[in-house]
Structure prediction request, 303 residues.
Amino acid sequence: MLQLNTASGIALGNLRSRKGFPPAWKTLAELEQVTDRAVEAFLDERLQASKQLGGAYLLEELADRALRTGEQELMDGDRLNEREKLDLVRALDRQNSFMQIYPTLIGIVLPFALEAARRSGRDAHVLELAGGTGGFALALAEKVRNEGLPVRITGSDIVPAYIGEAGKQAEDRQLPVEFIRLDALDPDGFGNNTVDADVIVVSQSLHHFTPGQIAVMIARCAQQSPAAFIGIDGYRSLLLAAGVPFIASLQAIPSFAIDGLVSARKFYSETELGIIAEIAAGKGSRSVSCSWPLSILCVHFGS
Prediction:
């Protein structure tokens, strides 16, 4: 529930029948604007389709609209200090470890990296954007070290405290991973040769960005000429809307439980992710799938 596949299919078909969808763009500023408008237009069209379908379809649409929020997570705002935010990111890392999320993420990303290494004949470079304190990058580095795989890893985030924490863990555990401060949305901070990557990953952070920002991120990643961009986030559903804050509450950190609820309310449906990627990179280059409890967006670049 909350993927609304039937109504989404009708809505998307209606939009495609009209001139100007998917919208064209020339600059990244245009891309951000047209993507935000396109997703909004899709949701409006889906509401009309749900009304026509009636019954349970309309009830699901209304539930989705009631659940949606533009509220900012506490870890992204100004109400918490740096130490408190760091505590929240550490709590997320513990939760991912408890739920065995990292092995799932590795299983999604590693095949892309190994294929890139096979094609190029050199170590593949995996770059994670918006990675917090580097839980996924650290777990991948441990896998790479233990199995001697031809992969090198860079983790990144915009928050210096997160990068410092991640770097300390990598040093303590002697893991082959580098952490850098990087803003994926800043044209002066992304796109230089020092972060060239074969596979670019955004793991469990897509909901922190608007549709337009995600599209810009994909388009800017394309400028790096990687093999793939992989965006992974929670699967939009009522089950996770209840389950994520419940599991988060087990750590007895009220702000973490609150952020868990806000995050679950902001997860994108798979149709929305597909629209965003299509606008940014073209229809034939992307795929969206589910590996419960995650939605996986893959954008393939080149051959």
User: Anything to note?
Assistant: The chain is about 55% helix and 15% strand.
